[in-house]
Design goal:
binds adenosine-5'-diphosphate; about 30% helix; about 25% strand; binds magnesium ion; 2 domains; Rossmann fold; four-stranded antiparallel beta sheet
Length: about 260
Amino acid sequence: MSELALTTEKLDKVFKLGGRKVHALSDVNLQIKKGDFISIMGPSGSGKTTLLNMLGCLDRPTYGKVILDGVDVTKVREKSLHKIRKYKVGFIFQTFNLMSWLNAIENVELPMEGTKKSKNERKKRAHDLLNMVGLSQREDHRPSRLSAGEQQRVAIARALANNPAIVLADEPTGNLDGKTKNEIVRLLAELNRKQGTTIIMVTHDGHVASRADKMLFLNDGRMLAKEKRGTHRLKDALKCSSCGQTAQPNDKYCPNCGQKI
Ligand SMILES: Nc1ncnc2c1ncn2[C@@H]1O[C@H](COP(=O)(O)OP(=O)(O)O)[C@@H](O)[C@H]1O
Ligand SMILES: [Mg+2]
């Protein structure tokens, strides 16, 4: 089995708009390992959504390859692409995109319809996932009765329903206030750390991006050569093994219990 969840080779996307060409992505080469938590930052219009759409097989590149969990999806026929989208990718959107007429548990069950799972198995998995995102008390609430942060938690549970190879999040905190924003990034970080979920999150918010393991930068459709370490594992490394208190980078001893770090 490949250690890579996703790679792209020389990815290009050109949109034709009237007589004009918009070069939305140019020569994007990515290597995402299983278990990575990567953020991609870029200003509005830099190609973030276009890139995620290529990675998640929602759109096809003009040139180049996307290899998802060992499969070159650019060679997969349109007819079979829906299966890749359904089983290999979990999507999280800025606007949550929940079905307003379904309650929380039904929204999470939805991607599992048509799979081998029985109705009971689907319900059980949706229940477990909602529990994992801290929403077991809200299973029968429709989206209109959930807060924005709760709706995004349901969307995260839904994205995980079919145990995808990769989760793609497009500005997942874009519609959330500061406190809720932090809670949602913390949840994504926890899923990555505890379950090993591979996550690519695009955002124009530097604070949110810095919570990942590695930050990549997109500008005008091109990946910049610079990369930055995020605080994700760094924070872990700075946790006191005795009491769990987070220390500062220069601390030699835990500020809470005095244990050597
Ligand atoms: N379907 C489309 N048709 C034409 N141009 C598009 C289309 N989608 C995106 N673009 C253009 O591609 C560029 C990148 O857009 P987008 O990926 O949405 O950026 P971001 O998500 O970083 O804000 C922009 O110039 C945008 O106008
Ligand atoms: Mg966008």
